[in-house]
Records
---
Amino acid sequence: MAVISTLAVIAIPNLLRVKIDANEAAALKALRTLNTAFESFYTINGRYPHNFGELKNAFPPYIDYEVTESSEGLQDWIVRQGYRVDMCVHCSSNYSYIIEAKPLQPGRTGNKWYRITESGMLEFKNTQDGEYQPLQ
C-alpha cells in the first residue's frame, strides 16, 4: 500500500503538468489559427471581423471552433482545452485587434495568459495582472 501511495504522490503532479502543457499548446495553436483567420477575413472584406461568429458562419468558414455567444449577443468566445479565448476589435489605440487566451482555472487548466495582435506576435504573462511579454 505504501508503494502505491508513493507512486501516486509522484505521478499525479506529473500528469497534471502534462495536461497543463497540452492545454497551453492548444491555446497557442488556437491563437495562431485565429490570427490567420482574422488576416484572411481582412484581405477579403477590407475589415476585421466583429466577432468569432463572422469567422465561423462565413462561406466557406474561416474556423470550425465551437463559438459561445453571450445572452445579449454582444460578445462571443471560444473554449479550447481549459482556455477561454476572447477577442476585441479596435479596443486599443495600439492594436487593430487583440485575441486573448485565459485559463479557465488558473493553476489547474493553465498557468499562463496569452495574446496575439495583428502583428502576429504571441505574448504571454504569468499572472492575470502581470505585464505581457514576447513569447520566445
---
Amino acid sequence: MTRSRLLLVPFVTELEWESILPELEKWADVATCDPPGVGEEPLPDGLTVEVGRSGENALEMLREWRTATAERVLAEVDRKGWEEFFVVGDSFGIENAVRVAEARPEAVRGIALGHAALEHNREGDRPTLSPNVLRSGKSSGTSPSRSADG
C-alpha cells in the first residue's frame, strides 16, 4: 500500500467529515458514506427507524441501525477494493467504527477513536484483533502531545 487508506465511519452523516476531508485527501485515500436512512442511502429491508421509541425498543432499533451502518461502510470498502485500511470514528460514530473493526480484524491496520461516547456491550467471547492493530500504536514509540493551550 503506497498511500494510507482511511475509512471515516460516520454516526449521522458523511458530512461530519467535510471540514477535514481536503486535508486528509492530501496524504491518504479516504472513504466514507452516509449510514442507512440518511441522504440517498435507503434503509435495509425490515429496518424501520421510528422517532419516539423508548426503553428496550429504542435500544434494539439502535443496535440494528448500527449493524446496518457497519455493513454499509464495509460495502464501501469492498466497492473500493481495499484489503487493508485504518478506521477512524468520532463521538457516537465510535461504536460503528468498533463494529467495523470487529467485522474485519484482518483488514484493519489501526483504529483511531476521538471524543468517546462509547457504549459497546456484547455477550460472549471478545473477538481477537489483528496483530497489526495491536502493534500499530506501539511501534512508532510516539504518543499524542498537547499544545500549551489545551
